[in-house]
Amino acid sequence: MSDVFIMVMFIVLVAVGGSVISDYLKTQRRLADRRGLNDDEHDRELADLRARVEVLERIVTDQGYSLRRELDAL
């Protein structure tokens, strides 16, 4: 009797888990479609953002930048 109960519970858990995963994947696909980005566009946008961060890092670590901040603080 308990073996049948365990088997039924296992089947229910697999079915519910599959449904949750399926819904999650559908939601992720819809979100990507709303943003209008495919993989190539996403990679290009990520590369652009990395380039911008590099520029910002150069500006902030520049000695002239910190000197200007100190003078502005006075």
What integer value in Å does the Rg equal? 26 Å
Order of helices and strands: HHH
What is the terminal separation in angstroms? 82 Å
Which band does the percent of strand residues land in? under 5%
Helicity range: over 70%
Determine the number of helices (DSSP H or I, runs of at least 4 residues): 3
In round numbers, the mean pLDDT is 81
- Could you list the spans in which at least 5 consecutive residues all have pLDDT below 50? none
How many strands in all? Answer: 0
Shape: elongated
What class would the helix/strand composition place it in?
mainly alpha
Major β-sheet annotation: none
Would you write up a description of this structure?
The protein is elongated. The mean pLDDT is 81. It has helices spanning 2-35, 39-61, 63-73. The protein is mainly α and 74 residues long.
Protein topology:
Blueprint: H1 2-35, H2 39-61, H3 63-73
Features:
74 residues, mainly alpha, 92% helix, elongated
Describe the structure in brief.
The chain is mainly α. The chain is built from 3 helices and no strands.
